[in-house]
Amino acid sequence: MSESSRESIYQALASIRLVDPHTHINPHSPASTTLADLLGYHYYTELAHSAGMAKKEIEEEDIHPRDLVGRLIQNLGPLENTAQYQWLVEICRKFFNFEGDRIDESNWETLYDVAESKMSAADWSMTVLDQSNVQAVFLTNEFDDALTGFDTDTYIPCLRTDDLVFHLGKDSVRERLQFCTEISIDGSLTNLRNALDQRFEHFIKNGARACAISLPPTFEPKCVSDGRAEVALADVLTNGLNADPANQITLSNRVFWTLAELCDHHGIPFDLMIGVNRGVYADGVYQGQDLYDSRVSLIQYKELFNAFPKVNFPISVLASVTNQELVSYSWIFPNVITNGHWWYSNTPSFISRDAAARLEAVPRTKQIGYYSDAYKLEFVHPKFDMYRRILAKTLAEQFVSQNGWSEERAVELGRQVLKDNVDRIFPKPS
Amino acid sequence: MSESSRESIYQALASIRLVDPHTHINPHSPASTTLADLLGYHYYTELAHSAGMAKKEIEEEDIHPRDLVGRLIQNLGPLENTAQYQWLVEICRKFFNFEGDRIDESNWETLYDVAESKMSAADWSMTVLDQSNVQAVFLTNEFDDALTGFDTDTYIPCLRTDDLVFHLGKDSVRERLQFCTEISIDGSLTNLRNALDQRFEHFIKNGARACAISLPPTFEPKCVSDGRAEVALADVLTNGLNADPANQITLSNRVFWTLAELCDHHGIPFDLMIGVNRGVYADGVYQGQDLYDSRVSLIQYKELFNAFPKVNFPISVLASVTNQELVSYSWIFPNVITNGHWWYSNTPSFISRDAAARLEAVPRTKQIGYYSDAYKLEFVHPKFDMYRRILAKTLAEQFVSQNGWSEERAVELGRQVLKDNVDRIFPKPS
Amino acid sequence: MSESSRESIYQALASIRLVDPHTHINPHSPASTTLADLLGYHYYTELAHSAGMAKKEIEEEDIHPRDLVGRLIQNLGPLENTAQYQWLVEICRKFFNFEGDRIDESNWETLYDVAESKMSAADWSMTVLDQSNVQAVFLTNEFDDALTGFDTDTYIPCLRTDDLVFHLGKDSVRERLQFCTEISIDGSLTNLRNALDQRFEHFIKNGARACAISLPPTFEPKCVSDGRAEVALADVLTNGLNADPANQITLSNRVFWTLAELCDHHGIPFDLMIGVNRGVYADGVYQGQDLYDSRVSLIQYKELFNAFPKVNFPISVLASVTNQELVSYSWIFPNVITNGHWWYSNTPSFISRDAAARLEAVPRTKQIGYYSDAYKLEFVHPKFDMYRRILAKTLAEQFVSQNGWSEERAVELGRQVLKDNVDRIFPKPS
Question: B59, B110, B239, B387: most buried by Cβ count inside 10 Å?
């Protein structure tokens, strides 16, 4: 019975047209042009490297996409067991008429040709969106992105702020900020705030629905006084990356707090992605160098959550051991929202246990079930589908079988976390 | 097969008359008088607030219970998915002839009337206990509770000591201690100890079977020398809450250690509930402000567990990530006992995984399966029933199906953790 | 369907002849001589003690094995629910014609006699290996072990280095090192390194395939300069265990780093078993005193993993909360390998969730599924069998049922983590 409930709930969930609330899609090139774009996703390159493939084999400059795919295919054997490999097989089945279980030396060339041919269609992006039952995707835009040349109803801008908070010590970042805002980043906190505000104006005018940032496990947001912030800003302006580390942290805090104030002022959510250490494996492949210290707590965000009761904070945690805190903080704080299953927690067994804990304890209106985090549109489908299958199983077992809910009611809950909450928590700017 | 085992094990467990080893029941008013007492439970007010209901709507003074229930009902929709909502539905079904799945604007008024009518019976408390198959419940008494005017066989006193350990800096707490003991709390450690001892005498004389305390994640019990303790006590007596924080911590440690000595002397267990941070969400509703930092370890209790080999320490941990440590410490230390599923870990998915880990590795004599933590008697049933269903499932799958146990043997294990261990670990004072 | 898949996958896995990559078997006395050797395993003594049996009852000197078994049997009742008890029953069923579920006062004497008779056979060790379908086991040898008098094809040496890294302050350890190497441990770093290198030569010449160590949660490997190391070594040589604690830690780091260099030089893996605090319960029974602080992170090993890209580090973590970090670090670092389910994480529910997370995210070539950690050969079978059953269940559910794999393909993955990776990661020295 649970088996058939699960299947019918899954079918109902699969029929819902999605909005993907966090991706890294490039709206000027949203879909892939060859299999190399798919296999170039860091999950494949880093896993192939982890399994023994040399970095220089993977990152050779000017290599032809077909040659790169040929090389990577030879190194996919050790990855066959991974959820990530499963996504790839799903993509090939869904979009390229592939019927096998394994992509290997016996079949990749045909697959490469079929894919290239399909991808060359002028409307390939729209085809992928359509076949994936996806209506729109959120982007991850640099703060100085012009946000022009694409349809912001389909590709929804999102202001990513890591550079502003953590890299203002770099000349290049300050120059970019000055250039795009035409506001001088000198020692004035007012100018700094005005420049940030101008970015919010620009983004919101262009349809942005969220501000977002990823944060290291050591970060602990604090309100910094003007006096303290001025000293820190002066040091960083003078000494850049050689400024006193305490001042760099102070400035990060000041900028972060200002962003929260601007989210409050402009009425948009502030997505916090908590827990990543950058560059842990320095010799890793591109985007395959980051890891984490799971000893992080949401208690570090106590001051922030209390200070901004009107800002919605959709929170992603990198490690599943933080999920229970996320559940509890969302259950208590009106402005804390559970958000998806991020990166190293985005594999079936972690999703299963984390989603189950959320569904039984966080108000149903405060859960954003999933986002794909994809760099290319083709990945939205298999990632969401992995989640949908787990969600359907949890709904069938926890709600239908154990709590005696009807399937309709379970689907209604699924729809809410999968789709409706995205629309409500990230409303279209009016 | 596992399905039918599970059901028959559940039925056998449900027939066991329970003693609930930890509640916050008020013995002078143990059951509810209207639905407002049920919906006023912090789980509903805090979740409704978290989902958007204003605090002032919830905590308006002098509001009529019926009006409050009407308001809360309008805000329960977002909570329907939670385990806590499920408890409420179970209560209404069990005690008030309710047959629906949802309590909403269409049916709450009838339900309110039925409940009020039933609750007005003179023997309502006994009816609830009886229908819940509950023989007795442990209380949580303030240290200066007179412990008179109720049947201590049914409502078993328990000495709660948070105020003594953490709030002796408050004039009101010292005054209450002086008043009830008639011992002067001056700079004398002897007097302080005598006052505490007098409280143990008072409680034990009145049938108390445990001393209990909740502890913040930073607490690390230590034996404090007399000299050091005298300095700390003098500072706290003079400066109250403005005393040197180090002295306040030292005094907390001294009092805590003295309580452990008195548990040893009087032969009663010391319930430790480890890991709560009070007042994290300062603007939350009543009792809906506490959260935690899951970065806590039982290694902090190493000195305590070694110093008091004859004191039984039933331990509750707030976060499921600490459960494995609890399992391991109970497996090694004769005086460490696993105790229930506390607060933020008291939802089905955390109970499932935590109970499974205990049942397979901690001696069966050292596990107290569950306590309800209830404030009103009506909640004892649905909470225990949630646990019993999970326990039955675990016994059916882990022991009957995987290990080949008979159902009888599985039920015997279930009975031990559910009931027998409570009787043995908290014996009646002779 | 999943049920039958599981059974046929289990049968296929059970037919694989194993190499156990980590045990504490004494090659001069690999199997038991009476039931006392089995019941003397620390799991039974520490659990019986935890459940109330006095240490002096367990550790009485010169007690006859039969009397000790009689005593322990009387105290096994409270342990019947544990996975460890299940191992014991499995051993008795497999090797001693036992047909019951419980070993108790009614049947232990017969069992004792049957076991003693079987164990007295000259080829008992080979019989156990053969019936367990085990080809060879890795040992845990003291650094000064002569490694003579046993078949190193069956009993594979492994250089255990805890004493060298953490106890060089003890006169006895330095004396043992001098004695076995004939190199003077004076203030010279060169001599110290030469002595260590000589141990590697000795071990590898005798068939060793790994260097191993267990590490406390506070340990954070660092490269120490020669100058700093000389100061530390001089202090430790002069003051032994009274040396400045900072110098003792520095010397530990220096020795540890040198061991990693020697693993690199000699091309053997360095097994790291991370997270144990020794002697937490000081009055516990022999080997029943160690526990842990689960607040540990692999970020502490960042410098090490980056510095030795060619050294394979099979990693065991003591607490399941560290498992996700292990998964992620293995997925990113080519030289990090997941290794078994250690000690307090070696019970079914932790194995299940930890193994599932590894199988879905770590390259299949980088997972060593299991080791027994056994002290006597009889335990290899029930421990591996516990793992095999869980592995079969995970493969049937995650891969066959959910991902649509054939059973053959699932068995192939199981074989790789169970056996093939052991052969490949710990190759025979050529």
Answer: B387
Instruction: Look at residue C7 and tell me if it is in a domain.
Output: no
- Say yes or no: A134 and A104 in one domain: no
Q: Per the structure, how many domains does chain B have?
A: 2
Cβ distance of B81 and A413 shorter than 8 Å: yes
CB-based contact (8 Å) between B301 and chain C?
no
Domain closes at, from C119, C140, C160: C119
Q: What is the pLDDT of residue B2?
A: 75
Residue B2, in any domain of the structure: no
Task: Round the average pLDDT of chain A to a whole number and report it.
Answer: 97
Give A335-359 pLDDT, tens digit per residue.
999 999 999 999 999 999 999 999 9
Question: With 60 as the cut, is the pLDDT of residue A177 above it?
Answer: yes
Give yes or no: residues C56 and C180 share one domain.
no
Distance from CA of B361 to the nearest CA of C (A): 5
Chain B residues closer than 8 Å to A332 by CB:
46, 50, 280-281, 284, 288-291
The pTM assigned to this predicted structure is: 0.98
Instruction: Indicate if A286 and A346 belong to the same structural domain.
Output: yes
The pLDDT, as a whole number, for residue B1 is 52
Give the pLDDT confidence score for residue C357 in this predicted structure.
98
Residue B304 lies in a domain: yes
Q: Are residues A111 and A134 in the same domain?
A: no
Long-range CB pairs of B182-185 (<8 Å, 24+ gap) are B185/B237
ipTM of the complex: 0.97
Contact A363 B46 (CB under 8 A): no
Q: Rounded to whole angstroms, what are the CA distances from B235 to B165, B222, C19, C175?
A: 15, 19, 65, 53
Average pLDDT estimate for C192-204? 98
Question: Structural domain of residue A413, as residue ranges?
Answer: 128-425
What residues in A contact B86, CB-CB < 8 Å?
403
Domain CATH code at residue C113: 1.10.2020.10
**Domain boundary residue among A68, A102, A119?**
A119
- Can you tell me the distance from the alpha carbon of A299 to that of B294, in angstroms, rounded to the nearest whole number? 9
CATH number of the domain at A154, please: 3.20.20.140
A256 and A310 co-located in one domain: yes
Q: Please, which chains are in contact with B (at least 3 CB pairs closer than 8 A)?
A: A, C
B81 and B136 co-located in one domain: no
H helix intervals, A300-399: 302-307, 323-332, 348-359, 380-394
Same domain? For A44 and A150 the reply is no
Residue C151 shares a structural domain with residue C280: yes
Query: Tens digits of per-residue pLDDT, B344-399?
Result: 999 999 999 999 999 999 999 999 999 999 999 999 999 999 999 999 999 999 99
CB contacts, 8 Å: A292 with chain C? 299, 325, 328
Residue C430 in any domain: the answer is: no
Q: Per-residue pLDDT tens for A292-351?
A: 999 999 999 999 999 999 999 999 999 999 999 999 999 999 999 999 999 999 999 999
* Predicted pLDDT of residue C331: 98
